[in-house]
Design brief:
Helix content is 53%, strand content 0%. By secondary structure, it is an all-alpha fold. α1 runs antiparallel to α2 (90-116) and α3 runs antiparallel to α4 (177-204).
């Protein structure tokens, strides 16, 4: 889901691992969804790229930041929704459903904020992908416990990267206080997702 217009993993994140969301159950430790799947790539993944959208190193403006997280949320909703159906472990199914729900709430909050600030969100470049598996390349072809472990590890890495990028790049660059507040809440909730994913990884056994 990469789009050169965007610089949360993460985040993010995303990310993927979201402001405006209500604090969630202990399952994920967060309320609305965060951009949970932003990677460290320089370009933005298109929504079709499946896993969380990566946040590049370039610093975007207000519309760019929100567009980036919009793509990340869309990707995460898709990925988590797919894994929730295909996972073998009840714990993975549960955390995947929570991620999908949270990212859905985060996306709603983001869209409302963009409308309030009269910002136009940039759609993912290249349009929808013909790949409808909802799985990024590193998860394709996997099933059962192998998919469960790969998904959890994938999400942990994405959330860690997205949290770092939102903190080090997006928040410092945000001039608008409402956007900055959104990003700060997103990071907090992404940390909740990360903690939940790490617990599930322990339950599945060490890699």
């Amino acid at each position: 889901m990469k789009s050169p217009a965007l610089p949360l993993t993460i985040l993010a994140l995303l990310t993927f691992c979201s402001p405006g969301r209500n604090r969630q159950s202990s399952e994920t430790g967060m309320g609305g969804a965060t951009a949970g799947g932003l990677s460290s790539n320089d370009t933005m993944p298109s929504v079709a790229a499946d896993s969380a959208a990566p946040v590049g190193d370039a610093t975007p403006g207000p519309a760019g930041i929100l567009s980036q997280l919009s793509v990340a949320n869309s990707a995460e909703i898709r990925l988590a929704g797919t894994v929730a159906k295909q996972a073998a472990s009840p714990q993975v199914k549960q955390v995947a459903r929570k991620l999908a729900a949270d990212h859905g709430k985060n996306l709603e909050q983001l869209q409302a904020l963009a409308q309030k600030l009269n910002l136009s969100l940039t759609p993912p470049q290249g349009g929808a992908s013909p790949d409808t598996t909802g799985l990024p390349p590193d998860l394709q072809g996997k099933s059962g416990s192998e998919l469960d472990r790969a998904f959890v590890q994938h999400e942990i890495q994405e959330h860690q990267a997205n949290i770092e990028k939102i903190r080090s790049q997006m928040i410092p660059a945000a001039q608008n206080e409402q956007i900055k507040s959104y990003l700060q809440k997103t990071v907090t909730e992404m940390e909740g997702h990360l903690a939940a994913l790490q617990r599930v990884r322990q339950q599945l056994g060490a890699y």
